[in-house]
Hints:
- The protein is an alpha+beta fold.
- Among the domains are: 2-44, no CATH class; 108-168, no CATH class; 238-366, no CATH class.
- The protein contains 8 helices and 15 strands.
- The protein has helices at residues 64-107, 110-123, 158-201, 206-214, 218-222, 258-268, 297-309, 354-362; strands at residues 2-5, 8-11, 13-17, 24-28, 34-37, 134-141, 144-151, 242-245, 251-254, 274-278, 286-288, 318-325, 329-331, 340-342, 346-351.
- The strands form 5 sheets. It has a 6-stranded antiparallel sheet, sandwiched between helices. Strands 3-4-5 form a 3-stranded antiparallel sheet, with no helix packed on it.
Amino acid sequence: IDQLKDKRVQRFHLVHEDNGSDSNLLLLDEERHLLIALRNPNQSGRSLAKGKPYTQPNHWHRSRPEAREQSEAAQTHGQQAVWQQHLKRLCKQLHRRLQHLEVDQTSLSDAHRFRRWGDLLKSKLHELQPGQAEIIVLEYSENELAEVCIPLNPQESPQQNLKVLYRRAEKLERSRPHVKRRITETQSQLESLGVALEQLAGLRDDVAVAAWESRLPRWMQATRPREVNKTSSKRTKVSGPLIRISSDGLEIWVGRNARENETVTFRWAKGNDWWLHAQGVGGAHVVIRNFGGDLPTRTLEEAAQLATYFSKLRKAGRAEVDYTRRKHVRRVRGGPAGLVHFSQNRTLQVRLNSELVNRLLARTTV
């Protein structure tokens, strides 16, 4: 700043210190001695008084571009950490599902045995006596005569025992293509998750993360926890609703009061998730998280057990449990929290299995 005084030019220096919360504006004379400061200049870790030579602050904060870059880098890292945690969690669930499917595939070989027993029993049906627990039948196999012991239910008639054997064989035979398809599908999903994790590890900014996220298949995006904040590297802990893993590796959510019912049904669940509730009584909203495939019968039965256990029919030990897609569930207008209407439902007859419920309650999420 130049100022004309007595035909002589006086020069002043105006210094702006861009130092974050300690920013200041100072006026110095021609010799760079302090004349006046907008704020106390000693807040920045230095000793500076009026008339003394100007010195820079001892500690400069990062410049805004540098701080912004660091913030963006931290945000990108946070997004990657959230996605990495989520995808690894999906991997564990799919590995568990694959293990159960492989066990199911092994048990499919029993179909031939049940049908063979049925054929043998059919030829000896007239010899069966009521209350008989087993029967020994001779079978010709590879030019040899062998004894085959067929276990029976003594509380059922011979005709009912025969029907049970054929029914078991037919059920396993029908399940064979379904189990094979689900194994192939699960293996493919695991491969896709591996590729996605490799791609994620190589991303360097939030634009790349967003582009990568947009290319993910729907089943990966749809199952991303809604309680996760994208800009945080930690998942927000949601206290309340019970989260358990079914024998098929699917998540089951259980609301144990009105507030938790609202959470699992209208905040967490999506349209194609499965929703269950004990019929005609107060109780838990139970949701089975849908991964895009068919709903396994075993998972449905386990969720129905939890719906019965967390209802007013627990002591009765029996319940009718309705189930439908979440998209068919609506709040009752003006009603209290947790009160709903639902449609397009089917009903399960449930007898409470305390041992199964205890096993489910002992399981935790991965």
